[in-house]
Amino acid sequence: MTDFAEYNSTRHRLALVLVGSTLGLIFIGGLVTSTHSGLAVPDWPLSYGRLFPPMVGGILFEHGHRMVASLVGLLTIVTVFFFRRDPRAWLRRATWAALGLVIAQGVLGGLTVLLKLPKPISIAHGVMAQTFFCLTVALAVWTSPSWGKSGASPLPDSDVPLPHMALLLFLSLYVQLVLGAVVRHTGHAIAFHVVNAGLIFLWMGWIFHRLTDHHTGDQTLWRTAVGIGAVYFLQASLGVGTLLSLTVSTWSLHPVSAVLWTTSHVMAGASLLGLSVAFLLLSWRRFPGVFSSGRVKDYVALTKPGISFMAAVTALAGFLLGSAGTLNGARLAHTALGTLLVSAGACALNMLLERDVDARMHRTESRPLPARRLYPGEALFLGVFLLSVGIVYLAGFVNGITAGVSGVTASIYLYVYTPLKKISALNTVFGAVAGALPPVMGWTAAAGRFEVGAWVLFGILFFWQFPHFFSLAWLYREDYERAGLTMLPVVEGDGKGTSHRIVATTVALLGASFLPLVFQSAGLVYGVSAGVLGTGLLGLGFLFLRDRTSLRARRLFLASVVYLPVLLAVLVFDAVRRGA
Fold first, then answer.
1. What is the DSSP letter of 155?
2. Stretch among 19-23, 75-79, 153-157 having the lowest mean pLDDT
3. How many whole angstroms separate alpha carbon 523 and alpha carbon 516?
4. What distance in Å separates the CA atoms of residue 509 and residue 501, rounded to the nearest whole number?
């Protein structure tokens, strides 16, 4: 059955009615928040034990909100019924997801009233309403004639694909509405709200440039983009007026005007989010293969999951060792996620910068960019997005020091280590610096400052990377030479200098691994383990010095892979045991 045959005018009209009703519900919900009427009715689902209480004061807004919510719930049930025979199974599942959301939304609102739940629950209630609204807009798009008529276009060779920019716009707007809910309920995060509004303006300009530069002839896409621009300026104007009314005495508004102003701002924001959903889906329809499962796997490959995961693990070790007293579980999770995002973004950009090098090496020629499964613009988008979000996330949810260290780490990796690989064998030193900073990030996230223990961890990871990387470079020295990289095994040829440096840095690693004993942050269990592990790694280093074969190098490399997580695990275990 074709897309045209799947289009059904009744379903589309029903979806549009559901969109309009949900937008009205969001408007009334904004009135409830703006007039502080959220707890004007103490019971639920009835209001003062009645189905129709006196509609006076805050009861008018709160009970009116419940009535419209009931209507939206009924319309959602009708939508599920009318879509039950749609040939697209995923569309039928989407209607059931909408029903589940509206039920959860109602229950959450009721529990908030009955249990007098805190403000974060009210914020979640508002965010869930916006999520439900996004799904209703999606239903309207999927049943529209535009969905059937959108033709597929080839992806450009170098530009960031339009669906990626549309996704960035949608995510930024979603975050904006979350921040708006925080501002309305707590009065905090206004600065973040304003800054993100500026970023949204940049993403819109980027999208219009793409549409103009590539002469995109899809009128539906153009009209949707123009609608986004118009509603954005309406919402921004309402936001500026609301902000001025709160901060400038000469702009004080009549209470009724202030309520309507702020509530209109909320509804304009929801409308903008809905338009971004439509634009995302339609642009995705125009480039149907851009988010296929194969491409998603390639996007994941761009982030070098092994390296990113190891960075997060070492940051967690730093956090656990830097924590004094009660462990802050939430900050621990924020640190891990932020580190993972920063590392993933930096790795994607490294893949972009080294795509020509990867194409000349057998070990890396099958990566997404040299194999031409992804375009450079996609890697640029993914890398910049993940890196910037990660740094901002760490700054907002952890602290500025950790965010700053993450920025320095990414900068050394991308702007020093990566280009230096083609110039000097000293690149390994700078690569080791970048690789040793994640545990410092973890420590500063926990302690809020630089401490000696953080630099002890830095020293361990710094020296560990030399036997780890030199053994790997020896195994792939022919690949590196073919790619024109000035790695030590390529520069000095016979491997004598490489083997001596492996032994020297492993001795330094062994010494650094005993520093936790010196500073009394670990005990006998760790000391014995560090001695055994370090001696074993050093022994393999001496074997490679005596017999520089691929077999010896591979054993040394695999041993280094095992060494670090085991050493850190024992260090954390011993520190926790001693602290308990």
1. P
2. 153-157
3. 8
4. 12
Three-state helix/strand/coil letters over 483-533 = HCCCCHHHHHCCCHHHHHHHHHHHHHHHHHHCHHHHCCCCCHHHHHHHHHH
Counting Cβ atoms within 10 Å, is residue 521 exposed (0-12), middle (13-18) or buried (19+)? buried
Neighbours of 97 (CB within 10 A): 14
| pLDDT tens-place string over residues 2-22 | 444 445 688 999 999 999 999
pTM strictly above 0.90: no
User: Can you tell me which residue has the tokens 């549409």?
Assistant: 211
Query: How many whole angstroms separate alpha carbon 101 and alpha carbon 497?
Result: 64
Residue 347 reports pLDDT greater than 80: yes
Beta-bridge partners for 50? 47
Nearest to 193 by CA among 203, 179, 204, 181: 179
Residue 323, classified by CB atoms within 10 Å of its CB into exposed (0-12), middle (13-18) or buried (19+), is buried
Q: Is 43 helix (H, G, I), strand (E, B) or coil?
A: coil
Which tokens hold the place of 51?
A: 């189905």
DSSP conformation class of 85: T
How far is the C-alpha of 157 from the C-alpha of 160, rounded, in Å?
Answer: 9
Contact 231, 275 (CB under 8 A): yes
Q: Which residue has tokens 């009660």? A: 326
Peptide bond into 45 cis (omega under 30): yes
Beta carbons of 461 and 513 less than 8 angstroms apart: no
User: Using one digit for the tens of pLDDT, what is the confidence trace for 521-532?
Assistant: 778 889 999 999
The CA radius of gyration of the chain, in Å to the nearest whole number, is: 29
The 3-state DSSP composition of the chain as helix, strand, coil percent (nearest 5) reads 80, 0, 20
pLDDT tens-digit profile of 272-320? 999 999 999 988 888 776 666 778 899 999 999 999 999 999 999 999 9
Helix (H, G, I), strand (E, B) or coil at 50: strand
What's the rounded Cα separation, in Å, for the pair 455 and 535? 22
Q: Is 215 left (phi over 0), alpha (psi -120 to 50) or beta?
A: left
For residues 61-77, b (16+ Cβ closer than 10 Å) or e, as one string? bbbebbebbeebbebbe
Q: How many Cβ atoms from other residues are within 10 Å of residue 283's Cβ? A: 28
Question: What are φ and ψ of residue 366, in 5° steps?
Answer: -90, 5
pLDDT-based confidence at residue 487 (cuts at 50, 70, 90):
confident
